[in-house]
Amino acid sequence: MKLVKSASGKNKIKMSHAEWTDLGKKAGWMKVAQQTISIDYNRLLQAIENKSFCTDPTQHPSAWSDTIAGVVYSGMTGNGQEGVSIYNQLTNNQGNKSAMSQLYNSTVSTATKDDGGWAQWDVMGKGWKGPKDTRENLNFYFTIEKTPENVQKFLKRLPNLVQHLRTYSTQNQSRLSFKIPITIGAFAGHNDTLKVYFNNLEIKDTVNQLVTNWLSSNGISTSTRTHNFGQDVGKESYGVRIAMRAQSWVQQAVQQGHEPQLILEGFKNLESNFFKDAVQ
After folding, report:
1. For residue 67, is it left (φ>0), alpha (ψ between -120 and 50) or beta?
2. Domain spans of the chain?
3. In CA terms, which of 5, 32, 128, 246 is 20 to 30 Å from 65?
4. Are residues 132 and 200 in contact, defined by beta-carbon separation less than 8 angstroms?
């Protein structure tokens, strides 16, 4: 780390990649993720300059969307104008009157319950809890490729996923459930278009294989993701937890007196390390 003068004559702190990495190691985040995510760096820089930090992640993300954590979270979940374009493509610009919207609503109507903006199917029925449940809300994330043909195929066959998973859930006596966004508009703008929940870490690989095989056997394509496994804790989803981790790193850099642009560059260098599988 050293002081250097910018073109305007101001002193700046310059840190090497190794020093940024060391800061990340001290925070305990140095595992490599599958790939980076799509973050709006202009918005992130503005949030850093404004020192805009989320202080209550239990609120709906829309309440802290302009904070550092909020910008990271939106980059993970895929909210934004792209979702509007995908929605128009899926509905052929006919909105709720389209055949796709009607199919989506029909599929959602078969769900076990509406879980706060998500349609949830409980594989063993509502309220069932297996004796082998050892942890709360372990989950796999899948992003369904959003072409009209692929989404239509996914929606028509989704209710059959219950039966596909029920045999294993019965044999293993472990709770399984899955969710999709409650509306087609939310589906179009979200990366997490299929979330599969379970409560026993020992069956992690089997659950992933079961769902992957079901998608493959039904010819349903998925997109590459930043992360595909995580754990919700209390009211904080895995995505919120990751966003708060990233914000904590930025906040530490701010407190150490680094300039916003330098912090942003350091964030880019370490970005992939924030998004790791984290299970308590």
Report:
1. beta
2. 2-77+237-274, 81-229
3. 32
4. yes
The β-bridge partners of 229 are 140
Q: Please, what is the angle between helix 17-27 and helix 260-274, to 10°? A: 60
Distance CA 80, CA 149 (A): 23
Q: Compute the residue count for the chain.
A: 280
List pLDDT tens digits, range 208-254. Answer: 999 999 999 999 999 877 678 877 777 677 788 888 888 999 999 99
CB 109 within 8 A of CB 115: no
Half-sphere exposure of 122 (CA within 13 A, CB side): 14
Closest CA to 164 of 118, 242, 218: 218
pTM as predicted: 0.71
C-beta of residue 136 within 8 angstroms of C-beta of residue 199: yes
Cβ–Cβ < 8 Å for 160, 213? no
Cα 276 to Cα 143: distance, rounded to the nearest angstrom: 17
Q: What is the pLDDT of residues 156-188, one digit of tens each?
A: 999 999 999 998 888 877 788 999 999 999 899
